[in-house]
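INFO batch 0412 | record 1 of 1 | parsing
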Amino acid sequence: MIYHKPWLQTATPAIAEGPQGRVLPEGDLAWKHLRVRGLHIILATIYFDHSTGLAGNNLDKFRRASLLTQEGRRMIIIAGDFNMEPEEWDQEILDAVGLTIVTVGNEKTCKTSKGSKQTDYLLVSTSLVPFLEDLAIVPDVVWQPHVAITFSINRRPGKVYHQAIDKPATLPYVKEANGKVLPWCIDSSTWLSKLEDMKDPATKAIDATKGDDTGIWQHANSLGATDPVRTFSIKYAQWSMATESAIIDTNPEATKSNDQLGRCLPPATSGRQSLIDPEAYR
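INFO prediction complete | emitting C-alpha cells
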C-alpha cells in the first residue's frame, strides 16, 4: 500500500520489509501518521489470516491497530485484506473502538476461480467517515486476485455537512422516590431500533409546525436554509423521542418520581406535555 500527498512528486510508502518490500512488520500491520487540515490521521494497512475470523492472531492484530487511536484521540483509516466480509463483523466490537466499515458499494474485491468475495475495505474512525470521498475500485494492480481501493479526505470548510445521531451515553440520570440515582444505558441494536421507530413520528411532529405563526419557517426560507433546518430538526426530535422511550423502558420509576420536562427528561405523569408533542420542539 502506498500513501501519498497529491502535490508531492514522491510517495511516502508504509513501512515494508523483505526483498520485494511486501512483508509487513508488527504482525501484518503497518501505518503512517499524517495531518490533514488540523486532523491527526493514522493511515494503516493490515492483513488478517485466512479462515480465522476475528479470533486468535487476527484479534490481536485488530487490538493493536485500534490502540493506535489512543482511545479515539486520533482518527484512523485501516485498509487491508481482512479475509472477512463486512457482515461477519460484530457491530458491538466496532462500536466499542469507534470504527465503521466503509466499502465501495457491494463490489467484490477478491475474485478467484472459487468465487468472489468482498474482503478488502476500510475500517474508519466513525467521526471521520463523512469526510471520505471519491471511493473507487482499481482492478488493474499487481497483487491479483485482489483489487485496490482509492479515496480522498475532504477537510475543506463548507464542503462537508454532517449530522450524526449518536447513541446516548449513560446519561441522563433519574432518581427513585428516595432520591437514589438510577443510571441507565442502552445497547446499540435497541437504540437503532428505537431511532427507526421514531423516524416517522418525528417527521410528522416537525412538519406539523410549518403552519404556525412563529415565523421560524419563514425566516429559514428567507435564508435559503429550509431543507437543512427541517433535516436538523427532525433528527433532533428523533433522537429526543428515542431517548425518552429508552428512559421509560429502562427506568419505570422515572414516570412516577419525576415531574420534569426537557431534553432527555421523561414525561411527567401530571398531565404535562411529553417530548413527543410537536410543541416541545418550538
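INFO post-check: The first strand starts at residue 2 and ends at 3.
INFO record closed
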